[in-house]
Design a protein that fits this description.
This protein is an alpha/beta fold and 97 residues long. The protein contains three helices and six strands; from the N terminus they run H-E-E-E-E-H-E-H-E.
Amino acid sequence: MRYLINRGYRVFAVNPNYTTVLDQPCYAILKEVPEPIDIVDVFRRSEAVPAIVREALSVKARILWLQLAFGSKPWTAILMVLPTSNTVPTVRASETN
C-alpha cells in the first residue's frame, strides 16, 4: 500500500479490524469507500474471499486481484455462475511464493 501511495495512486484500506492504516482512514467494508473503486486487491484468507467477491460486484469494481495461494477456492464457484456483462470485474490472480 505504501508503495502505491508513494507513486501517486489513491489507495483506500478496507479492513473491519482497523480504523486507520498508514495514517489514512480504513473502511470496514467496500461500500464505505467514498469514491468509485477501480481495483480490489485481496490479501485475505480463502474463506473470506466469497464475501469480498460479492462486495466487489456490489460496488462495481472493475478489477478483482486475488492471490493463487488459496487452499480451497470457493470464490471460483461464485465467478463461474456470474453472467458475463460490463458489471462483472476482471479477475486477476498472481502467484505467491
